[in-house]
Structure formats: structure tokens, C-alpha cells
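Progress note, sequence design subtask.
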């Protein structure tokens, strides 16, 4: 059990006394208002070494599926950094971890909060989620090192299972944090490997004592790589994110009839493999017909018995549909459902659907977007407003407090791939913008 696993046990037995830090000779200004960029980059490398994988061309990536041993090791490392910084660390019932730098008056309530996630997909990069968490740590470290006494507490969190790749839905931890799912409901979710969230959370020592839902922050701002091609293609350095598009995930099970691949005439087949292929091509054709920003993906597909000379008896596949417009997203779901019933009739198969995730599009707070925009410009960056194609914890926090996001460029727009890359200078610039946005929220009158 790692350090933090012990920490979680201490907290659970309430032997853990929250570390309240008084600031000696407090100052109310942070002269250089920059993070320690070298330390941020070093921590990104150190965290990336946990669950390290290599891409097709040797690119360094990360595989830290939620609640895996690698996730626990990553958690232990980040919690240790939080603890070393003297933050007040809380681990909640779904394993979200929040470290708070108390305000000048010692309070830790309603912090200006930042954060993201440290779980990754199986073919993850080094920056998705990790940047937001470690940049948040570097922001608080800059404040602590300067012995700055802030009017409001500053918090940095990592949320459990943002990716949803092992356990659906995605953004599970932040969904529970804002009270849109209970921890008990989350515990009963079974993953793609047959394990149960509640059991895995206990196994890694992160089923913490702090109850969910968590307290609403004063405001929430998340730094994240864009994971898309827009900023780089337009030569714009920073994205002021206006919101997150809607997400619809479902798992389809097609039941046909296994048969001999050589003797069964084509008109007598009930081929689940053919059905899966038809669905994948329908999802693509529908996305092309509907046009951007609509996207559709069949990311998981398994056939049974999966043998060269057997017509597939069954197929299990996932469909991921996304759109910034709720009505268009509903339209795509309706058209898919209609197609599935036609396919059942034509191929003589049965198709069942299980909802994995469904989130409507989210719009961020205009005041927060404007704050990100002018702060980034104030540091000499080109900025553009844009929606997020990917889901983020910020879309859940937006339900309980003023929220926005900061995007940095992704090279060639690649993500969920070890080839994911962002220039070090952009990573540090993103953290510097985050620092100033958080200080403005804490000390200023932005809201
Ligand atoms: O699926 C997503 O958009 C996110 O990476 N969880
Ligand atoms: Mn992410
Ligand atoms: Mn991701």
C-alpha cells in the first residue's frame, strides 16, 4: 500500500489531523506571478513514468486505467506532493482527492479550485488530464513559496475515472462530486473487465471518508490540452473554452446465429459480424451527412466465437455520438435507433442497447471565459474561443459553480495516443495563465 493508501487509512480512522498551515510574514502579492516551469515539466515526466508505454514509433505514453495498480501508484505520488506542500488533503467516497491551501484566515471552504484527472485510456499520452492536475499543484506551490496569504482558499483536485474507458460513464468522479450520481450507484458499476468500482476503489485504498457530494467551490478552472487540431492549425496559442459538447455512449449487443462459413448460403445467414460492420458504416455516414461538429465512433467491437470459419453468433460494440447541439445529438440517436430496427429485420438478428453515458452540451460562465481570454492576452498570447470536443471534469463542476477551461495546443491534434505532444513552453504558459486566473478569482472581483 502506497503512502497515500496509508494516508487514506489514517484519514478513515480520523487519526489524520488536517495540516493547517499558517503563513509566516504573509504577503498579498506574488511579484513574478509565474510557476516553476522546470518543476512542472519534471513532475509531468515523473508521473508519466508510472504506467509508461511506448507508441508505434517509440513515443512515450501512459496507460493508467482508472482504479488500476498504475492509477494507485500515480495517486500516491500526487497525494505525496500535495501533502509535502502542506495542503489540507481530503479523499472522498469515490476517491476524488482535493488538496486545499487555506486562505489567510485559515478557512478551506469554497476554494478557487482547479484540477483534472490522472487516469488515462489504455493508449494514453502524458498530458491528457495530468497537465491540469500538476499545473494546479504548481500554481499553489508558487503561492506557498511566495508565502502569499490569499483572500480565498486555493484548491487542486484530481477526479476519479474521468476517462470512462474501464468503467462507464466518463467523468464519474466529478459527476459524483457534484451530486449527479451517488457513490453507491458508482460502486455498483461493472467494468469492461468484470470488476466492480466499489471493490477496486477499496482494493487501491482510495475509498475515502469524506462524503459526496463535495462542497461547491467558489469557482473552477481547468487547464487541459486541446486534444484536437484547431489551435495549431490556426496558429493560435491558447483556447478560451466556451463549453463542452454533448456525449452519447451506448453498448450494442447483436445476437445472430453461428453457422458454417463454407456451407451456409448468404441468404440464410444471421450474421452478427456483418451487422456490426453495417452499424459502423452507418455511424460514419451519418456523421458525414450531419457535418461538423457532429462526430460518431465505434471504438469497441468484439465478435463471438471470433473464428475464421464461423459466421459470428454475436457481436458487442460501442457507439460514441457527440454534438455541440442537443437537438442534433438527439436526432442522431433517433436515426441510429431507426437504423438498428431496420437491420434487425433485414438480417434476422436481435439488437439490444445499454446506455453507458449521456451528457447534454454544457456552456461555461461568460465572466470566466472572458477572464481566461484577457489573462491569456495579458501574457501576450493569441487566443480564440472554442468549444471542447472532449469531455472534461469541468463540464460537471459547471453544474455547481462558475467554470471555464484553458486549452493549450496539441501537436497535429493527436490525443488518446502516445504520440500526444504539447510544446513545453506551451505547458508552462498554460500554468502561468492558470495561476493568474486563480489569483484574480481569489483576490479580485472577476465574479
Ligand atoms: O471521452 C472523453 O471525451 C474524455 O476523454 N473522457
Ligand atoms: Mn482529459
Ligand atoms: Mn481523455
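Output:
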Amino acid at each position: 500500500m502506497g503512502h497515500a493508501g496509508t494516508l487514506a487509512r489514517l484519514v478513515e480512522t480520523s487519526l489524520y489531523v488536517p495540516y493547517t498551515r499558517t503563513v509566516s510574514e504573509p504577503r498579498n502579492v506574488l511579484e513574478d506571478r509565474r510557476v516553476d516551469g522546470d518543476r512542472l515539466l519534471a513532475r509531468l515526466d515523473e508521473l508519466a513514468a508510472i504506467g509508461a508505454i511506448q507508441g508505434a514509433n517509440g513515443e512515450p505514453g501512459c496507460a493508467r486505467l482508472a482504479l488500476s495498480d498504475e492509477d494507485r501508484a500515480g495517486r500516491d505520488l500526487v497525494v505525496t506532493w500535495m501533502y509535502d506542500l502542506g495542503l489540507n488533503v481530503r479523499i472522498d467516497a469515490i476517491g476524488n482527492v482535493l488538496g486545499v491551501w487555506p486562505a489567510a484566515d485559515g478557512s478551506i471552504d469554497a476554494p478557487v479550485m482547479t484540477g483534472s484527472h490522472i487516469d488515462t485510456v489504455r493508449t494514453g499520452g502524458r498530458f491528457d488530464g495530468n497537465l491540469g492536475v500538476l499545473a494546479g499543484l504548481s500554481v499553489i506551490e508558487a503561492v506557498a513559496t511566495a508565502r502569499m496569504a490569499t483572500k480565498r482558499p486555493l484548491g487542486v483536485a484530481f477526479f476519479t475515472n474521468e476517462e470512462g474507458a474501464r468503467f462507464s460513464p466518463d467523468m464519474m468522479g466529478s459527476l459524483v462530486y457534484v451530486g449527479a450520481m451517488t457513490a453507491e450507484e458508482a460502486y455498483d458499476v461493472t467494468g469492461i473487465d468484470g470488476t466492480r468500482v466499489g471493490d477496486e476503489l477499496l482494493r487501491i485504498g482510495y475509498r475515502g471518508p469524506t462524503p459526496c457530494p463535495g462542497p461547491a467551490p467558489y469557482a473552477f478552472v481547468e487547464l487541459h490540452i486541446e486534444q484536437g487540431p484547431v489551435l495549431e492549425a490556426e496558429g493560435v496559442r491558447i483556447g478560451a473554452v466556451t463549453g463542452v459538447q454533448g456525449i452519447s455512449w451506448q453498448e450494442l449487443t447483436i445476437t445472430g446465429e453461428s453457422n458454417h462459413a463454407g456451407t451456409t448460403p448468404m441468404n440464410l445467414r444471421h450474421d452478427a459480424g456483418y451487422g456490426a460492420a453495417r452499424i459502423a458504416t452507418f455511424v460514419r455516414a451519418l456523421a458525414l451527412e450531419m457535418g461538423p461538429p457532429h462526430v460518431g465512433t465505434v471504438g469497441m467491437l468484439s465478435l463471438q466465437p471470433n473464428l475464421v470459419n464461423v459466421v459470428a453468433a454475436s457481436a458487442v460494440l460501442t457507439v460514441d455520438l457527440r454534438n455541440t447541439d442537443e437537438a442534433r445529438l438527439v436526432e442522431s440517436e433517433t436515426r441510429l435507433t431507426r437504423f438498428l430496427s431496420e437491420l434487425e429485420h433485414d438480417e434476422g438478428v436481435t439488437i439490444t442497447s445499454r446506455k453507458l453515458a449521456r451528457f447534454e452540451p454544457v456552456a461555461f460562465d461568460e465572466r470566466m471565459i472572458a477572464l481566461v481570454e484577457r489573462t491569456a492576452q495579458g501574457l501576450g498570447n493569441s487566443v480564440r474561443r472554442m468549444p471542447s470536443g472532449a469531455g472534461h471534469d469541468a463540464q460537471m463542476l459547471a453544474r455547481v459553480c462558475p467554470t471555464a477551461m484553458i486549452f493549450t495546443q496539441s501537436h497535429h491534434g493527436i490525443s488518446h495516443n502516445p504520440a500526444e505532444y504539447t510544446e513545453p513552453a506551451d505547458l508552462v504558459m498554460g500554468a502561468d495563465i492558470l495561476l493568474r486566473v486563480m489569483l484574480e478569482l481569489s483576490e479580485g472581483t472577476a465574479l
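The chain has two domains: 3-245+361-442, 246-359. Work on this subtask will continue into the next period as scheduled.
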